Amino acid sequence: GINAEYGTKHRPIQHMEFMTDAKARQRYWARNFVGFPVFIEKKPNISHSVLAAMEHHNMVDWVITQNVDRLHQKAGSTKVTELHGTTNIVTCQRCNYVTDRESFQGYIQSYNSEFVAEIINVTPDADAEIDKELIRSFNTPLCPDCGSDLLKPQVVFFGANVGSEKVEFCYEKVRAADRILVAGSSLHVMSGYRFILDSKKRNKEIAILNIGTTRADHVTDTKITARCGEFFEQFRDNHLLDS
User: Fold this and answer.
1) Mean pLDDT of the region 222-243
2) What is the rounded distance in angstroms from the CA atom of residue 100 to the CA atom of residue 91?
3) Looking at the predicted structure, is the pLDDT value of residue 117 above 80?
4) For 89, phi and psi rounded to 5 degrees?
5) How far apart are CA 112 and CA 140, in angstroms?
6) Which of 33, 42, 233, 238 is 20 to 30 A (C-alpha) from 149?
7) What does the pLDDT average to over 208-232?
8) Which of 15, 48, 56, 84 is an active site residue?
9) Catalytic residue list contains 57
C-alpha cells in the first residue's frame, strides 16, 4: 500500500462476521455511508503520480496494490492489479446485481434520508468512526433485484481469500519481472508477502521502501528507510519525470 495508515484502534470488518451478522452489515454500511463522501474526494499523492509516470516511461511493468481506493488509476496507471479488490464496486452476494459505489451512495441515501452523523475519523477504506448509538437508526440498503441485505463492496475482507485466478496472475507478473520494489507496505499479511518469498526463491532482486520494518526485511537485497512521498519526489526530480 501507499501510505495507507489505519491507526491502532481500527478494527477491520471480518468476512464471516459481515456475511453472517445483519447487525455487522448495518454497522459497516452506516459507517461507510458517512465516510464515502470524504473517501471519494481523495486525490493521488506524489507516490501514485510518480509510479504512473514510471509506467509511461517503461520503468514499471506492473503494479500490484493492496489498497482498495483506485488512486493508482486516478494518477494514470493502467497496469494495475487490485489484490484486495476495490471499494468502488458493490455486488449482491445472493444474486448477480452489480453497481458502482458512487451510484450506490444515492441508493443508500434513499433508505436514510434523515441519517446524519458527525465523523470522528475516516480510514483509507472509507470506514468512518461515528457515534455507535446512531447506527441503530440506520437502515441497511436492500438489493433492488432480489431484496437481500447481502450487498458487499468488491473488497477482500479479513478472513477471506484472494481469488485463485488473481493470485496466479500476480505470480505470473512477479515472475516475469527483472526486479521487485515493495513500496509502503509492511507485508504483514500473507496475500502480498508470498510473492516476495517466491521472488526470493527465484533469485529476483528485491528492494523495499518503507519507513518501518517489514516482514521481508530478511530477504531483501536493498532496504530504503524513507517515506514513500519523499523518496518518489526525489526520484522524479533526479530522472526528470513529469507527474
Assistant:
1) 92
2) 9
3) yes
4) -125, 140
5) 9
6) 42
7) 96
8) 84
9) no
Taken in order 60, 78, 156, 165, is the CA torsion positive or negative?
negative
Helix, strand or coil, per DSSP, at residue 165: helix
Classify 80 in phi/psi space as left (phi over 0), alpha (psi -120 to 50) or beta: beta
Burial class (CB in 10 A: 0-12, 13-18, 19+), 99: middle
DSSP state of 140: P
Q: What is the pLDDT of residue 23?
A: 97
CA distance 100 to 139: 20
Site of grid cell 477504506: 125
Per-residue model confidence (pLDDT) at position 223 = 97
How crowded is residue 145: how many other Cβ atoms within 10 Å of its Cβ?
Answer: 12
Whole-prediction pTM value? 0.90
Listing DSSP states for 89-109 in one string gives EEEESSS--EEEHHHHHHHHH
Where does residue 98 rank: exposed (0-12), middle (13-18), buried (19+ CB within 10 A)? Answer: exposed
CA-to-CA distance for 3 and 13, rounded, in angstroms? 20
- pLDDT value of position 243: 62
Residue 165: partners with Cβ closer than 8 Å, 6 or more residues away: none
Q: What is the pLDDT of residue 9?
A: 56
CB atoms within 10 A of CB 188: 11
- Let me know the angle formed at the C-alpha of 7 by 220 and 194, rounded to the nearest 5 degrees: 30
Phi, psi of 158, rounded to the nearest 5 degrees: -60, 135
Task: Answer whether residue 99 shows pLDDT above 70.
Answer: yes
